[in-house]
Structure formats: structure tokens, C-alpha cells
Task: inverse folding
């Protein structure tokens, strides 16, 4: 662990911002206040002009291990996350074999213990993620798993999903759904609309997402279960969430940076890095999703970090893999979007908000709320105060930087944001009391 004094930064606890020094010793925040003295043996970090906040928490990260280590590993994803300001990542279970048993959970945990950031495990809802019968949910829950999902595929069998939701109520677990009706989506590559017609490419209609979202909202209403909707991509899905909350349904949802900033218009060049599932929708969807983030309908920003080996991203568009990396760019994309309304060269998405409001919203949607949904708010995402575990992020809001895929720490380089200028740069990341990123570089 590192004994650190973070000097002169603006401490962010939601909408509460105050200039203060932060003293960290033995993995905990032990003092906050103006102009604290520097104890002997304590390293000082200058945070003048920077924001100091709890580390980011990603609800949706594909670490690819086991089964696809050529694309990413737990170690490399954790290092990429640290550079992006994350101190906690939730590993998705669509590995080979799938994370569908307590034995698999334990295997991932043993590898995660050596990672530079905290790695939480999401368990599969069904055995092998095949959608045929429930996985060992109770046993995985006893092993500490709080979130369950077949991400990469939606649970198609309504009765099976109903049983999963019923099962989850006992342990207050979260069932997270990749909302996609397979009979509507299979064989599609991009959003169903004008662009797909122009390009002559098979498409995925928005209704594939919306019909399953509505089905699961009704099932959650019936059972009283906690439901989380992954990577929401359409404005109608947000309307379903709003209706569900009016009914008292315990539903949360997330959006990705790419579904906020990029649209089907960005797919025209058939750049394989723009191929993602759910697909990039319309510009109108982007704008309405952004409004949903501002008004609190969307609880969290999640990366859906989906690294792929270059061989899987250099094939023709219809043959290449779905997915984009996002851990190292998420903060910059969201902060730039909020404070400038867009990213240079892209269409305007929203009216900019001021910097202090933006950093408060980032803290809420990228740290505090994700930690609550993941069930780790006792360790992550909470206010920086005496006694809190030292999972801390320092960002410079005025620093600009240009994304360079060749310099990313992720093992794979399939980012849609290559060469874009972003504002807001991660300067230091402190994970589990250890300084793991200093001056933007991994230690």
C-alpha cells in the first residue's frame, strides 16, 4: 500500500465539491482538510486544478479470460481499467467455459486477486449461457456473486427468465439482461433503418431490444425482483424504464459511451470498429439517451469493454466480430460530451452543462450508482471521508488528449474513438490503497 497526500484538489462527493487535501495511510482515507501537513514517508501528489473522487466502477467488462486470452486477460483488462480511472470492474461471464458455477467463480477470483484493481464476478443465468436451464445461481451467490447475466445473449425462454427472477428475490440478487429477441436479431449487423437499406446489410431492429425489455419489466413487476438492463440503445427502451418505475418496478439501466456519441451514420464507412451489439442506433436515439442520462432515467454509464484480436476485426464488416474497447476512453468521452455537447468532428448531442455539474454527474453515474448496483458500495463509489477505503481517482478537467490506439494498455486495439480529441484526463489512480497510475502512466 502507498501512504499518499493528495494536495490541493477539489474533492467530489456527488454534487458536493470542496477544495481539500486528502491523506491516505494503510489503504484508507484518514484525513481531509485544507493544507494538511505531510507526514514522514508519505508521497505527495499535486492535484491543483484537478478533481479528486472515488474511483470509477464498470458494471460491464469483458475480460475474455478464460478462453480468449489472445484478446484480453484479467491482468491486461485491469491495467487498462486503471489507466481509465477504474478501481472496480465487473467481469462478464461469456467466457469459455462460462462462469456458471462456484468453481468457475473461484478460478476467476484467484486470478483477480493479482489484478491492479478490484475485479468482481458476474455469474451466468443459465448453464453454459445456452438458455436451456438455470445455472448454479444459489451456489454462486453463496460465493459472493451479486449480478447474474447471460450477456452476449438474452434469455429467450420467458418461463426460464421468470424462474431466474423469482430465484433472485431470496438473495436480493440482480438479474442483468442483454435485451435482444433472437428471432428478430439473428443475422443482423447494424441498426434497421435508412443506412442498412442504403448499404444492403442485414439489420437488427430496435424492437429486438424493446420487446425483451418490456417482457422483463413485466416479469420483474410480477416477482418484485431487481432487474438491470444492459447497454440500452433506444429511446423507447428508456420510456419502458420510466413506465416500469411508475409501476414501482426495481429496474436500473446503463448506457455505453458509444451509444451516446456514435450513431448509425458512423457505420457508413463500414469501419469494423463501429460494429457493436446492440448496434449504433439513430442520432435521435443518441440525443434522447443523453437526456435520459441528465434526468436520471439512466443510472449508470458502463463501457461494455469488448476487446477482440486484430484477426477478428480485419475481416469484411459482415464477418467481423461485434464489440469495441472502452475502459481507457470512457471518462474522456463522457466528460467531453457533457461539457462540450459533442466530441470534435461528431454531431452535436446535447446542450453542454458546466464543468462542476458534469463531474458530479460522472461521479454519480460512473462511480456511486454502479457500485450500488454491483453491491460493492461498502468499498467502492462512496464519498471520500475518513475511514473510507482508498479507491481514488484524480482527473484534470482541462487537459486534452488524442486517442491513439497504439498506446492503449488493453491487449486489443479495437476502439471506435481512435484519433478523437478528448477533454478530461486521468492523472492518478489509487486502487486498494496502492498508487497504480501516476501522471497518466501505469506503475
Result:
Amino acid at each position: 500500500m502507498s501512504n499518499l497526500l493528495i494536495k490541493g484538489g477539489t474533492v467530489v462527493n456527488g454534487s458536493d465539491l470542496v477544495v481539500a487535501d486528502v491523506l491516505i495511510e494503510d489503504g484508507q482515507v484518514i484525513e481531509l482538510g485544507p493544507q494538511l501537513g505531510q507526514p514522514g514517508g508519505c508521497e505527495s501528489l499535486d492535484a491543483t486544478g484537478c478533481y479528486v473522487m472515488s474511483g470509477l466502477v464498470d458494471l460491464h467488462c469483458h475480460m475474455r479470460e478464460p478462453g480468449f486470452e489472445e484478446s484480453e486477460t484479467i491482468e491486461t483488462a485491469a491495467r487498462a481499467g486503471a489507466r481509465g480511472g477504474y478501481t472496480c470492474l465487473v467481469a462478464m461471464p461469456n467466457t469459455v467455459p462460462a462462469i456458471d458455477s462456484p468453481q468457475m467463480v473461484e478460478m476467476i477470483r484467484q486470478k483477480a486477486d493479482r489484478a491492479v484493481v478490484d475485479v468482481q464476478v458476474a455469474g451466468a443465468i443459465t448453464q453454459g449461457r445456452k438458455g436451456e436451464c438455470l445455472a448454479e445461481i444459489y451456489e454462486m451467490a453463496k460465493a459472493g456473486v451479486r449480478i447474474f447475466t447471460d450477456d452476449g445473449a438474452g434469455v429467450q425462454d420467458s418461463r426460464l427468465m421468470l424462474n431466474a427472477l423469482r430465484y433472485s428475490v431470496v438473495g436480493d440478487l440482480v438479474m442483468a439482461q442483454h435485451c435482444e429477441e433472437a428471432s428478430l436479431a439473428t443475422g443482423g449487423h447494424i441498426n434497421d433503418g435508412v443506412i442498412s437499406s442504403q448499404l444492403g446489410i442485414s439489420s437488427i431492429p430496435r424492437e429486438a431490444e424493446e420487446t425483451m425489455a418490456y417482457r422483463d419489466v413485466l416479469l420483474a413487476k410480477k416477482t418484485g425482483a431487481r432487474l438491470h438492463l444492459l447497454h440500452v440503445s433506444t429511446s423507447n427502451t428508456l420510456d419502458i424504464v420510466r413506465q416500469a418505475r411508475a409501476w414501482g418496478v426495481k429496474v436500473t439501466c446503463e448506457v455505453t459511451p458509444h451509444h451516446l456519441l456514435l450513431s448509425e451514420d458512423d457505420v457508413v464507412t463500414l469501419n469494423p470498429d463501429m460494429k457493436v451489439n446492440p448496434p449504433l442506433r439513430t442520432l435521435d436515439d443518441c440525443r434522447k439517451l443523453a437526456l435520459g442520462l441528465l434526468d436520471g432515467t439512466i443510472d449508470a454509464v458502463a463501457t461494455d469493454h469488448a476487446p477482440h484480436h486484430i484477426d477478428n476485426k480485419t475481416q469484411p464488416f459482415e464477418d467481423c466480430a461485434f464489440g469495441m474497447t472502452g475502459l481507457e476512453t470512457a471518462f474522456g468521452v463522457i466528460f467531453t460530451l457533457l461539457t462540450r455537447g459533442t466530441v470534435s468532428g461528431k454531431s452535436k448531442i446535447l446542450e453542454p452543462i458546466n464543468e462542476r455539474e458534469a463531474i458530479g454527474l460522472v461521479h454519480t453515474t460512473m462511480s456511486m450508482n454502479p457500485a450500488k448496483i454491483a453491491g460493492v458500495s461498502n468499498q467502492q463509489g462512496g464519498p471520500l471521508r475518513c475511514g473510507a477505503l482508498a479507491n481514488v481517482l484524480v482527473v484534470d478537467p482541462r487537459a486534452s488528449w488524442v486517442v491513439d490506439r497504439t498506446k492503449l494498455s488493453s491487449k486489443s486495439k479495437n476502439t471506435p474513438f481512435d484519433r478523437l480529441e478528448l477533454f478530461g484526463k486521468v492523472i492518478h489512480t489509487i486502487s486498494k490503497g496502492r498508487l497504480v497510475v501516476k501522471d497518466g502512466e501505469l506503475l
Q: What stands out?
A: Residues 100 and 155 are 14 Å apart (CA to CA). The chain has one domain: 55-381.
